[in-house]
Amino acid sequence: MLEISNVSAAYGEAAVLDGVTMQVAEGEIVALLGRNGMGKTSLVRSVMGLGSPQVTAGSVRLDGAELRGLPSHQIAARRIGYVPQGRRLFPSLTVLEHLQMLERKRPGAWTVQQVLDAFPRLGERRANRGNQLSGGERQLLAIGRALMTGPRILLMDEPTEGLAPVTVAQVEEILGRLRAHGLGILLVEQNLYSALSLADRVYLFETGRVVWQGKPAELQASEATLHRYLGIH
What we know:
By secondary structure, the protein is an alpha/beta fold. It has helices at 40-47, 72-77, 95-100, 112-118, 120-124, 135-147, 165-180, 192-198, 216-220, 223-230; strands at residues 2-11, 14-24, 29-33, 54-62, 65-66, 80-83, 153-157, 184-188, 201-206, 209-214.
């Protein structure tokens, strides 16, 4: 269980998170929704210990063990994976090289062959460089790269951004499979209907705070909540 308790954070003097509390269990998908600029990316960066924003209060724990204050590589070693917004691939490295550089002998870590078996398209493109891949292929590689660390909890920031509908459906199918294998996923997503089709629970964010939480069906049934926090009529 990933437990985020009363976390506040800031970029310098500018506060971006204000007492955020939420949980993600293994084997569930938790969606974090909200308009742009509300602090969703800042939250996942804070959980990963990336240093910016600076966490000023609160606690981040995995199975009771404190993560706050650890460098990001130690947090990743505790089996929290991260798929950043924009994929962040190396343009000159091939698909195979992206995966091989992360291959580790640790419990739960995926092998290169397991990733290629799970994502056949990456196997077909294994010799292609990062700058030769389509948007969907880059996203598959970003997910595969995160799985190489053997995560129990996966933080995903806008995984369907800029993807064609057929590729969005493919990513959704992959996330469903990962959940079925016990992976917990914190999903930051602008695609409301994709997020609601996947999520077990939903948190709504506004100006760095959780303003609503519940089941996807409850959110879909509340036109007032959708309009107020997501601008959907």
